[in-house]
Specification:
Elements: H1 2-13, H2 20-35, H3 42-57, H4 65-79, H5 85-117, E1 123-126, H6 131-142, E2 148-152, H7 159-169, E3 174-177, H8 182-188, E4 193-196, E5 200-201, E6 207-210, H9 213-223, E7 226-230, E8 272-275, E9 282-285, E10 288-290, H10 295-302, H11 304-307
Parallel strand pairs: 1-2, 1-4, 2-3, 4-7, 7-9
Antiparallel strand pairs: 5-6, 6-8, 9-10
Helix pairs in contact: 1-2, 1-3, 2-3, 2-4, 2-5, 3-4, 4-5, 5-6, 8-9
Bound molecules: ribulose-1,5-diphosphate (RUB).
The site of ribulose-1,5-diphosphate has 17 residues, from helix 2, helix 6 and strand 6.
């Protein structure tokens, strides 16, 4: 079973599986494999799940969807610790399947709500690669809205290329820009809306997403362009209610520049940044459209299991 867990750990760490929702789903599927291992007692099964969960959580530190998914599944395991192993396997497998289905239906609900917000002829700018944002944009297009999209390339890993490819393959007119052209593009091309995904959303309404997001939000504020975040509630951080913040992942400098090319120069490669709640107009969640000020209430309502409230 260690092999399965190690493989998912490596896939997430190396970003073969990436994006906040996808890593949460990959970890959940792996915990289902662990539940179905041949341990003799329910206690041993839970121990195995706990070990696997700890390892998987450490694969990437910034997207709270990963620990949220794992904590939820471990919490469900604990609640069922009194039942026999066979029944436990059946029950937990069903609960994990249900959890994954809920995440997928949250995604499609957000697409449906988000598509209503997009207007005919909108020019939308997005950053990085978010399945949630892409699905929403594709839904608006399928609804007959004649939209166009501008994608940033998203240095250093170029996730913007994935976005551009997906959207243009869907038939949507798509333009790729370098990250540093964001302000110019927003101003000169007259972007109507910026829509991005999220890795973590704090109770304060501040939001963590791919490095560069906060600069784009500042530009949007200056130019009076709507800045919209599309994210499932799995990306809300219950720990932030207790003052705990996620660690911003610092990745290998070799992603930025070939090692040894600039001897003596230090390279920083933070993968995410924090966008101030004041620069966010709305969050689109599966529960509807939420202003940053309402995140606190939604968190308390939906994550009571985590906090014992
Ligand atoms: C991906 C990223 C995405 C969010 C949301 O970063 O910042 O905007 O994860 O994605 P990375 P989704 O490429 O480093 O994982 O909506 O697909 O969950």
């Amino acid at each position: 079973m260690g092999n399965v867990v190690d493989k998912t750990y490596r896939d997430i760490k190396s970003m073969r599986v990436r994006g906040a929702l996808d890593i949460a789903i990959a970890a959940s599927k792996t915990l289902k494999r662990v539940v179905n291992s041949d341990a003799k007692s329910t206690h041993q099964l839970i121990q195995g799940m706990t070990r696997a969960g700890k390892k998987l959580k450490s694969a990437r530190p910034t997207a709270v969807s990963l620990p949220n998914a794992i904590n939820y599944i471990l919490h469900t395991a604990d609640k069922n610790s009194h039942i026999e192993p066979e029944e436990f396997r059946r029950k937990l497998s069903g609960e994990i399947d249900k959890f994954i289905m809920e995440q997928k239906s949250a995604l499609s609900r957000i697409a449906e709500i988000g598509a209503n917000i997009i207007e005919d002829n909108d020019l939308i700018l997005t950053h990085c690669n978010s399945d949630t944002v892409n699905m929403l944009i594709e839904r608006a297009w399928d609804d007959g809205k004649k939209i166009k999209v501008v994608c940033t390339e998203t240095r250093p890993r170029y996730q913007g290329h994935i976005t551009a490819k997906e959207l243009s393959t869907h038939g949507i007119p798509t333009t790729l820009i370098v990250d540093s052209a964001a302000h110019l593009a927003m101003k000169e091309l007259k972007i109507d809306k910026v829509i991005v995904g999220a890795d973590t959303i704090y109770a304060s309404g501040d939001m963590v997403n791919k490095i560069g997001t906060s600069q784009i939000a500042l530009c949007a504020r200056e130019l009076d362009i709507d800045f919209i975040v599309a994210a499932e509630s799995i990306k809300f951080s219950p720990q932030s209610l207790m003052g705990s913040m996620v660690k911003i992942e610092e990745r290998d400098p070799a992603e930025v520049i070939k090692s040894g090319k600039l001897p003596g120069v230090k390279v920083l490669n933070p993968a995410f940044d924090i966008t101030n709640a004041e620069h966010i107009d709305i969050f689109i969640t599966e529960f509807g459209v939420v202003p940053p000020g309402a995140v606190y209430h939604l968190l308390r309502e939906k994550f009571g299991w985590e906090l014992g409230i």
